[in-house]
Amino acid sequence: MTATGTASALSLHDVSAGYGAEPVVAHVSLEARRSRWLAIVGPNGAGKSTVLKAVANLVPSQGTVMLDGTDTATLPRKELARRVGYAPQNPALPERLTVTDYVLLGRAPHLGALARESAADVSIVEDALARLDLHELAGRRLGTLSGGEAQRAVLARVLVQRTPLLLLDEPTTGLDIGHAQTLLERLDQLRREDGTTVVTTLHDLTVAAQYADELVLLDRGGVVATGPPSQVLTTERLRTHYAADVDVLTTAAGSPVVVPVRPTDGR
Ligand SMILES: Nc1ncnc2c1ncn2[C@@H]1O[C@H](COP(=O)(O)OP(=O)(O)OP(=O)(O)O)[C@@H](O)[C@H]1O
Question: Where is the ABC transporter domain (predicted)?
Answer without folding.
Answer: 10-245
